[in-house]
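Title: Prediction job returns without error message
Component: structure pipeline
Severity: low
Priority: P3
Assignee: unassigned

Description:
Job completed but the reporter wants confirmation the result is attached to the right record. Sequence as submitted:
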Amino acid sequence: MAAELTVQIEPRWHDKPLTLADLTLKNAAGNSLSVTRLAFLLSAAKLQREDGTWIGAGDWYAFVDLEKKRTAFTLSEVPAAKYKALRFDMGLDPAADKSDPATRAAGHPLHPDVNGLHWGWKKGYVFLAIEGRWRQADGNDGGYSYHLAGEPCRGTIEVPAELDLRGALQMTLVMDAARMFNGTHRIDIAAADSTHSGNDGGLAERMADNAVAAFSLLRVEPHAGVTDAPPTVKVTSPGGVSLEIPAHFPEATWPADNVLTKAGISLGRRLFNDGRLSATNQISCASCHWEQLAFSDPPRFSTGTDGQQGKRNSMPLMNLAWKSSFFWDGRVSSLREQVMHPIKDPLEMNETPGHVVAKLQRDRFYPGSFAKVFGSPGITAERLGLALEQYLLTLVSGNSKLDRALRGKETLTDEEKRGFELFFTESDPGRGIRGADCFHCHGGAHFTNNAFMNNGLDADGSIADAGREKVTGNRADRGKFMVPSLRNLTLTDPYMHDGRFDTLEEVIEHYDRGVKRTETLDPNLAKHLSRGGLGLNPDEKRALVAFLETLTDEPEE
């Protein structure tokens, strides 16, 4: 007989519930601060039997992220018995840390699209990330980002508890984030606002000591069960359709209720290019997503049916199977839903799904094609969305110069290699570390964390587009937008949600010295403000541009 133990992590600050983005928190060094991100990886869970021996959970990992509301993990198939302690590691053993994330199934805690803690091209994971803003009495403020990685930062949490696992139990643990700063070692943000896990004078190791001591038992109670993970379909060629997906890409979650077929993809492609989806029968999806430009649109704002302009730059379409939300503000969670919004938007196609269906039904081609794809006669708005979804899921970008270099088919130039190093290196001039700090938001195989960030384009009083806040209603999301992929950058200008920058050089100048102070600015950018910016020199900026140009897809000869 097997039982199940669910462990709930309750984040706190000095025994009070921890609220994200609350700048009234205090630490022992006298800093006023907030926490905007708290995420960590756990492994090697074990339970101690009554005779003192331990049983392990095997290949077990968990990911906890306060912002994503992932605050629980489960030990399943536990032998039904009484136990007297739980033990788990903060961090990963060296083998797991250096393992290939592309081999992890979609939804796995070590999948980079799940945790956002993988170092991408540099290999290895961040075990714990705590980020936020800080402010001093004199008004000076900035951001901090502490990231713990590497074997010296790995630690073990052991919680004594009477666990009668002859039935399902829930254990609740407190993780007091204040102890990250006020534990055995006192951390003064004003003195050191970032860690480098190996090049920071031992700061990361001291924080790791504090982190291990931050856990304590709150209660143990009966638990009726846990919610199953959402179903996924692990495929190499969905529905028998051959898709060229690079080996270094993590697994995607393909829709189980819309398996890709050649007929479905062909139908979706035809619909994507059909102007009848608009009120004037002139504007198609392809009108604002040019295939030769990585499915982006050259103008700053796209033009709709009656010459009206949109309000945001048209996003390129690529690697959509790895995304869980769409549009700059993330207002929808599926492609089949996303495709209907431009059709109905008065500034875009200005049509109704019902009118579109009626027009398609009068066509000689579409009724038979829909019947072939879906197995029965009938054209509906739902089927229209599913067909477009099938086509969009095939738009895979993964054949850039960098991808080919990873396969040993090309070699980066010295300047491109220098740009690579700058891209994936923290900026900390005080410790002699020169970097551009890009990887926090643009790491991993897709060069995006698919999260929503405020990148300091405008100061608080000048934010014209509230972005994510319009969707969530949360003031902490003001000015935040989806972090776009950096793939195919040479084809997808202009840049940013409002297309304000025409060149990569302008983008780099913004991140170097143009970031504006704002209440919701991402901590990884805010931490540079007190230093006057990144301080990149002209050679470093050129190297960054050279590296970014290696991210554009090209046909192999």
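Comment from assignee: result matches the submitted record. Residues 2-222 form one domain.
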